[in-house]
Amino acid sequence: MQAYSEILRTMDIYREIDRLNPRQREAALHGEGPLLVLAGAGSGKTRVITMRTAYLIHTGVPAGSVLAVTFTNKAAREMKGRVQHMVKTGNGSPVISTFHSLCLRILRREIEVLGYRKDFTIYDTSEQVSLLRNILSEIKFYDKSFKAEALLERISRTKNSFASQNDDADPIEEASAMIYPKYLDALKSMNALDFDDLLLLTLRLFREYPEILRKYRERFRYLMVDEYQDTNRVQYDFIKLMAGERRNLCVVGDDDQSIYGWRGADIGNILDFEKDFPGTVTVRLEQNYRSFGHILNAANGVIRNNARRMEKSLWTEKGDGPKVNIFKAADTEDEAEWIIDRVSLIKDERNIRFEDVAIIYRANNFSRPFEEALRRKRIPYSVVGGTSYFERTEIKDLAAYLKIIANPSDGLSLMRAANVPKRGLGATALGVIADFARTNSIGLLDAFGGASGIPGIGKKAAASAEKFFDLIRHYRQMFDSGREMGKTLEALINEINYRDYVLGLYKTPEAAFGRMENIAGFVESITHYESTEQAPSLQGFLETVALTDLIEEEEEKGGRGVTLISFHSSKGLEFPVVFIAGTEEDMLPHKKSADTDEGIEEERRLFYVGITRAMNELYITYAQNRTKYGKSEPSFPSRFLEEIPEEAARKLDRFEEMDPDQEKAYVKKLYANLMAKLGD
DNA sequence: GAATCACGCATTTTT
DNA sequence: TGCGTGATTC
């Protein structure tokens, strides 16, 4: 029985390999040594990585010695799903993981040699910001021209690129040089790591402890890295170390889609790969399975103008298809209305769903005119992106409790939890406790425990602090011993009257409804976690919270209607019909990126990414006047528009180039819309 | 501690 | 223009 299914799988593999195109096959069958797969947009790269993994294992490589690293959970999930189909599980399975969770796993095992405890906490961006704010106010850094976010960006860049701290006399630079060490100390003392630390400390571990590095090199003999063009300096060093002498390293990526330079991604990593790893086999995946020819010609024509890139050119067997449509709108509203009219027109004519349509723009605040127009026409839509989701106060509050329970050194979470709900511990009392803890070098939580012995603290506050200490200690035991984390969390929520507290924050119970849902959702997610994990732990749950977006799944399911999305967020997605809006100078290229050639080239890549999202139809629009900050100003077509080959595009006017039937339908539609508007 | 106001700022965001 | 922040006020 088992043998039979194995034969089937074997056949599956060969059948699948047979279905690859020659380039894909070359990549999938590559054995030892460095391999660079330059995977153009829509060229089936995930298929290739999956096939290569399956094939390696098929040829006798132990599954567990294959490591594939991605940037996003989504990519890892997808790859896992596909590999599971191809590979017999049981003899271990390949490790497919994001950079961050891989490093986290390593650090959980090894971090003690670096002077951290294993129960370290992970701070997300908002916690990093709070920490920085605390530091700023502590050292009485009253220059309000320094925003914590700006500092954080600088600090993160320093961490990720090993940039030296004070090259120039830029004021942010100076502030950063001053605050950076304090920030590092604070993290360390709280036994906490930020996102960057996960990678950085793993790298340090490998550098300083060769025997640990050796262990992981032995463990992972075949490495694959997805989206290699997005790696930063730290990730590059990490990969290089892991690959070691063996150099069984396969990197997959597309330099033309490198759009995260501003976050530290170094396009040089992929451009110099062949130099860094002599003997590299380079495979170009240029056949595109997504778009029609004219769309690809437009994309090729644009990206050709970049100097720093690996030569390649997308092609298809699908035929030319319709030309790329370029439309000049009068102003911001006109653009939005024209696009939305077009959406309903196309929907009726082509029998497509709203889900098949995306509107892509440079900056998130561009979604607004489209949202308004869509609402007017009662067309369903969903906006992708924006960072606001992460900031759900209720989840942060409850997570702070869990964090201080899991890691008693986590002073930041302690301070947050101590105040929510209010329990008579104001800024003064907390300050006194914190000072006391610091001067006597005892833990902050312990200082809470002995609050009544602290000079200068009120009786009530002291009692409250000690009660809080007991609460944390109690739940630490509960979470430690008990299996039932969901119930324990529920008990905690009840004990601190958290729901009442949140209810009290809003005028009406209706207004608080969403908040209640968040709380319920959080409890549900911990329950779900403990029921799916083999060895659930509070720490493990907190990792999930930190490293994966809890909302991800509902969002994917809930995302209905027309998609409104930024260029950046659109990478990796595809839509039958794509509108690219606001193709104007100062927006694309954005004026803040237009000073340098590097900046311009990254903007051009953005445009390229946008164009290559389209499968069947692509519309590119620009407006002659754009409303910015309430004022309408003349706007000019983007320089990138001229780079689209003339044969691949056509200029579209409202009625021109439509056949009479279409025009009739269009007018009918306009009429219907007018009626709908009157009906409002 | 809550409500109010004035001010400044406004690109992109995988973990 | 419109939002979030920080200061001011009761």
Poorly predicted sequence stretches spanning 5 or more consecutive residues:
none
What is the molecular shape? globular
> Main β-sheet, in a few words?
8 strands, mixed
- What is the structural class? alpha/beta
How many alpha or pi helices? Answer: 29
What's the SSE blueprint?
Layout: H1 2-19, H2 22-29, E1 35-39, H3 45-58, E2 66-70, H4 73-86, E3 95-98, H5 99-110, E4 121-123, H6 125-138, H7 148-161, H8 171-189, E5 192-194, H9 195-208, H10 210-219, E6 222-225, H11 233-243, E7 249-253, H12 268-271, H13 273-276, E8 281-285, H14 293-303, E9 324-331, H15 332-350, E10 357-361, H16 367-376, E11 381-383, H17 393-406, H18 411-419, H19 427-439, H20 444-449, H21 459-481, H22 485-495, H23 498-505, H24 513-532, H25 538-547, H26 552-558, E12 562-566, H27 567-570, E13 575-580, H28 597-611, E14 614-628, E15 631-634, E16 649-652, H29 660-679
Parallel strand pairs: 1-7, 1-8, 2-3, 2-6, 4-5, 6-7, 9-14, 9-16, 10-12, 10-13, 11-12, 13-14
Antiparallel strand pairs: 14-15
Helix pairs in contact: 1-3, 2-3, 3-4, 5-9, 6-7, 6-8, 7-8, 9-10, 9-11, 14-28, 15-16, 15-29, 17-18, 17-21, 17-25, 22-24
The structure holds a DNA duplex (15 and 10 nucleotides).
Describe this structure in words.
- This protein is an alpha/beta fold.
- The chain has 29 helices and 16 strands.
- Strands 9, 10, 11, 12, 13, 14, 15 and 16 form an 8-stranded mixed β-sheet that branches. Strands 3-2-6-7-1-8 form a 6-stranded parallel β-sheet, sandwiched between helices. Strands 4-5 form a two-stranded parallel sheet.
- Strand 13, helix 28 and strand 14 (614-628) form a beta-alpha-beta unit.
- Helix 6 (125-138) packs across helix 7 (148-161).
- The longest helix is centred in the last third of the chain and has 23 residues, at 459-481.
- It is globular and about 80 Å long.
- It starts with a helix and ends with a helix.
- The mean pLDDT is 87.
- The chain binds a DNA duplex (15 and 10 nucleotides) through helix 4, helix 5, helix 9 and helix 27.
